[in-house]
Amino acid sequence: MRSEWRSRIAAALTVMLMFASIEWAMTVTHAAEEELNNVMINGGFEDSDEDGRLPGWQPAEDTAVITVSESVYADGKRSLQVERLSPEAGSGAVSDTYAAQPFGNVIMSASVLSDEGHGGKADLRFYDAGGKLVSVVSGLVGEPSGKWQSLRVAASAPKNAAEVRVAFDFNGDLTGRYFVDSVTLEMQASSPYLTNLGPQSSSLTLMTAAFGKDKNGQDALFTVAQGDPAQFIVMDVASREVKSTHPLVALDGSNVSAAWAIVTASDGKVYIGSTPNGALFQYDPAEDKLRAIGKPVPTDTVIWTLVAGEDGKVYGGTGYSQSLFEYDPATDQTRILKSFKTSSKEAHIRSLAYDSDRQMIYVGGADVAKLYQYDLASGTSIALHHPEFNGKTSVYDLQYAGGKLFVRVDPGPVMFVYDPDTASWIVNNNTAYNARGFSPLSPDGEEVFYTYYETLPGGAQQWSLHSYNVRTGVYGSLGVDVKGAGVAFGYVQLDQTKYPGWTLVGLAGNSGRAFYYNLETGMIETPELPFPAQFVELFNIGKSTDGQILSSGFISGGGMGIYSPTRNETKHYPQIGQVEGFGSLNGKMYLGVYPRATIFEYDPAKPWNRTDPSEPNNPLRLGQLGSEQDRPVAMLGVEEENLLYIGSYPIAGKTGGALTVYNPDTGTFNVKRDIISGHSINSLLYKHGKLFMATGAMTGGEGKLAIYDTASGRVELEQVPVPGKKAVTSLIWGPDGNIWGMALGALFIYDTERQEIIYSKDMFPTADYAHSNPRLTVGTDGNVYGTIYTGYVADHTYTSKMFKIDAASKSLSILLESNAEKLAQDDFGNLYFKYGSELMKYSDPNLVMQLEKVQLEAESLQLHPGDEVGYSYEVFLERGRTTKELSGADIEYLSSHPDKAEIDPKGKIIAKHPGQAELSIRITLNGVTVESNKIKVKITGPF
Predict the structure, then answer these.
(1) Whole-prediction pTM
(2) Given CA atoms 206, 211, 215, 217 in this order, what sign does their dihedral have?
(3) Do the beta carbons of residue 539 and residue 858 sit within 8 Å?
(4) pLDDT tens column, 910-937
(5) CA 124 to CA 157: how far, in whole Å?
(6) CB–CB of 881/849 below 8 Å?
(7) Helix (H) or strand (E) holding 503
(8) Are 161 and 155 a contacting pair, CB within 8 Å?
């Protein structure tokens, strides 16, 4: 059939035009409820102008032609032919622009027929009012099948979008041919129920840095502050002044959140490798200009490491294809040199080092610790793994200096040194090491520096600078306190009296502290540098026991935003880290923080304090789970047992999550590692002495629903609720009293009495992301609402949805086609999700409950003058809901005879004189005023 089409293509029409395109990715399978209007012009490609132009369409960037076939079509008499038979030439098309509204759903549908090759894609390209590209959402054309197929690409327009175009072309440099017909573009207005509450979490987090010269030839430190978007920062090392900042935005318009990799090339230019878009950036100090180069590995989302080679070249390592790439400034092109992935368990190149003596690249792998030597001339590689790497998860850092290869291996971390001349390991498993890498070789050609948190003879501890002499092989502590783990190192000449000659400069930790260590005098300074804090991408959201909404930032070091629904304001608090899971018990909140599965206890009734050592910490650090656990994703407090149950993931490269039982009375953690063999614990529910656990298979297999008996401490039952799904990722008590859960994108309903699945349907078949996703909640209308991060599709960028499942019919409605992740619900029925660094509020009037009743109770109604007794009240909303979130309410404390007795705001009834008084509380909230029941107190006895 393909050869027949080739003969027909001779009759195609060709139109010459030019346009620019950029790619990203997305796909979906369900439509929204609201009626949509098709605005696409000439979606069937039937119309053409007299001059041969195609109304409504223009050529794509990498081609000067639009090709229309008159012999292959699904409807009418013509179709669009899209082809790229070589990476250098082809045909594609981009539509005219159409007006879009922020957060309005945009849905493109088309019929496509794949002829040959693969990599064809359709884009929704969003632009702001000035015509700048701000987002690209894509869907892939299927493999050749000989049949017309439906292709659907849907997205919610970004907050700053004003226009959208549809484009058909190919992903990366892939080649092939396909036909397109019957294109529609349907638009929805912005939802009136959405409110952007703004950024919630801020921090200063610097993952690494590089050193070089600025445009004036002065020594400069180059770093990236995590944010939304992350900011590239140039600082003068001598004056400690920030000279310039540059936002990191990828070519597709997406914001960079952080950068794990920064390197100064041999020509002085600086390169940055980003996450989550896997983009490479170049900074030219001479011009003080930053530009996005592109995505070196189209399928990958993070560049973990960069190293400089010769002639201005840089080399990078990525996740998740574990690819090594090269960027050559002479051609301004990147190319993939090799993927080191040998199993599904291995996903990342975590470190690189350049051997200038041999023209080799050393490659450190994760999630299995492996080390390779890659020959740049031949393209071949050999393994150098030390036997003691077995069981380790990552070759985390590498440095080639003084003819030696310095290696950090995790967990530990531990230090190894390899001598390529003798092909021998000369330092093995040195535990007196803890740094992000190693310094370059010192200017005298003698030393390599690193750090370690050591215990001094008197028992005190400090972050000491250590050195390794490459000539003698002697290594150890210099006794110099640098105040934090070294995460970047460089040498500068400051030309200051107190800093003669060369000075070693580095970052100490990730929060902006630096160290200046003079190599001649041994003088040390550890200043806090004035890097600007940034609002960061949100990682998790949850509801506190006081009814307020908690928002935690991405990557450790971020703060907490606490939003009051009744005050409609956020308060920002510092230093809590990346919260993986929220739980509650006895009015307190428990926060499971990454890394190292650290558990905090937070009392919302007390002031937040993480910075004042003279006052108790709140949240209070309780401890770490240990047992190689890293991410406490599921946390469930059980009041009747007074226990907190924690489900967790292990550190990267390990298998076997844990169920942990925390007893607040004893302060002890009972960690049950690998309670479901080879599985993580993703979600927890409790009922009548049984703990229901959702698990994820970490070494192949299927996710399970397991039942754990809390009295005996034994797993009683393990079931696979949805065959073929690697993880069960979310459990809630559904509107019918059964467990509603999702295994990736498949909904299932589990009857706990019969212990069987009574309903199952794959709502999102493409969903493949298993970590802490999706999120489900039962709305005040009895239906189930959720968000789902469906994982990586198209050219491997991510997608997400906000949806509703009808409790009776199980029908699915998409509320937002993208830009919605995580989910929380407040007491009133408002829904919350994250959008980058910002918290979004979804307030459907049919879901939001108003104040209905206040019930007042007193400890005693018979009092004597001078008595003070406690009282309490409960606030009821419509549909039986309750709330404690009254921080924005107007509360009046009423007494019929205030000279006899009063009710005060601090929880006390105060008896004054003999007699009687009726007491009540009047609350006004959201325009509704309700007065409580009246309680009559009688005061007797002498004055």
Answers:
(1) 0.87
(2) positive
(3) no
(4) 999 999 999 999 999 999 999 999 999 9
(5) 9
(6) yes
(7) strand 502-508
(8) no
